[in-house]
Amino acid sequence: MKNNAALLMIDIQTDFCPGGALAVNEGDAVVPLANKLQQHFEITVPTQDWHPSDHSSFADNHEGGEPFSLIDMPYGPQVLWPRHCVIGSNGAEFHTDLETDSSDMIIRKGFRSAIDSYSAFFENDKTTQTGLTGYLREREANAVYLVGLALDFCVCYSAVDAAKQGFEATVITDACRAIDLDGSLDNAMTEMKNAGVNFASSGDFL
Question: What pLDDT, on a 0 to 100 scale, did the predictor assign at position 2?
């Protein structure tokens, strides 16, 4: 058991797994590892993308918007995504095999129409908090380990923000999968390394 450490299970949801609206290649392969890893952590927190139907990151909410294109938002560049993880939809639910009954809390993010939220800690304006930092500090956690989807977006943003918030952050890389959009995976790995994020394998625990 990792004392004073939290396992963050990032967005292991139906829409990000094969057959989903924004499927990550082999996204479902992270589920068995996430389930096994939970047994080694004092705190477990899954996150969910949780978008209203009018969310500004959906390409079809912009006239002529093309999926995976970039637009400028008040908080910076924003990828336009295919419609996914709509509140109350099957696609927004956790993968059916992911064990969440023992989770300490669930973080839902991206529920404000005008702003996207990749990180488990902050929305994309880097100011609006999800409440996770405060919860982990109340639990006296000093380290977070991250698994899930997608490595080059929500896992990366969460890991970098965890490090910036003063937590020892470690990504368990074989329990993640990436989208790799126009070099996004290489960019994410560089960003995480520069932020002081550590990397490990599930074999270090299992």
Answer: 72
**Domains present along the chain, CATH in parentheses:** 2-52+83-204 (3.40.50.850)
CA distance 10 to 139: 19
pLDDT in tens, 97-129: 999 999 999 999 999 999 999 999 999 999 999
Which residue in 121, 131, 54, 49 sits closest to 91, CA to CA? Answer: 49
* Rounded-to-integer distance, Cα 91 and Cα 99, Å: 17
Q: Which residues are catalytic?
A: 11, 109, 154
List strand residue ranges (DSSP E) for the chain, in order: 2-10, 41-49, 70-73, 76-79, 107-109, 143-149, 168-177, 198-200
Q: Per the structure block, which two tokens stand in for 62?
A: 């912009």
Q: What does the chain come to in residues?
A: 206
Q: How many other C-beta atoms lie within 10 A of the C-beta of residue 9?
A: 30
Q: Which of 2-6, 41-45, 113-117, 181-185 has the lowest mean pLDDT?
A: 2-6
Q: Is the pTM of this model over 0.90?
A: yes
Q: CB of 172 within 8 A of CB of 192?
A: no
CA atoms within 13 A on the CB side of 162: 33
Phi-psi region of 141 (alpha: psi -120 to 50; beta: other; left: phi over 0): beta
Collect all residues with Cβ–Cβ distance below 8 Å to 19 and sequence separation of at least 6: none
